[in-house]
Amino acid sequence: MVIALLLAAAQPSAEALRLGNEIARHGTLAALLPLKEQQDTAELLAEDKTLSAAEQAKVRATVQRLYADAEKLLFSATGRAYAERLSLADLRTIAAFYRTAASKRFQAAVPTAIVATMKAVGEVDLKKDARVAICKETGKLCAE
After folding, report:
1. Are 114 and 31 spatial neighbours (Cβ–Cβ below 8 Å)?
2. H or E segment to which residue 133 belongs
3. Domain residue spans in the chain?
4. Which of 21, 35, 48, 118 fits 79 for a cystine, CB–CB 3.0-4.6 Å?
5. CA 129 to mean position of chain CA atoms
6. Is the model more confident about 8 or about 47?
């Protein structure tokens, strides 16, 4: 009985879930998914130069459908995670910010800012860099 009460108390309210989902749809993942969708589509189309225009359209539609399905799942899970970890007051404040004009401009800038960052910095593999440094300093973790 006590466990059931504790589990029930841990469940976020409908408002918290709604706000968490709204926030998730404005976060970094929401900014990155369209970029990844474009990249995946372009890479798939480049793999087979013999695709007809109709087949190319089918590839685009399939990728778009799969990403739309994945977005629902990812945003729902992220929204729930926010709702479980943030207070209702915090969720309301964050959601209110995301509704502002400044936030909309920020969100519009995020994808191009990320692309510009990746172009400026290049490939980053910190795990690989750490392995090299540890190997050099200790002689350990040298094998990949």
Report:
1. yes
2. helix 126-138
3. 2-99
4. 21
5. 25
6. 47
- Residue-wise pLDDT for 59-87, tens only, equals 999 999 999 999 999 999 999 999 999 99
Cα–Cα distances (Å) from 40 to 62, 141, 144, in that order, read 11, 33, 28
Instruction: Spell out where 41-84 has E strands.
Output: none
Nearest Cα neighbor of 112 from 46, 32, 44 is 32
SS3 60: helix
Six-digit token pair at 47?
């793999």
Q: How many CB atoms lie within 10 A of CB 68?
A: 11
Contacts of 15 (CB under 8 A, 6+ apart): 88, 91
Q: Decide if 24 contacts 83 (C-beta within 8 A).
A: no
Q: What is the pTM of this model?
A: 0.75
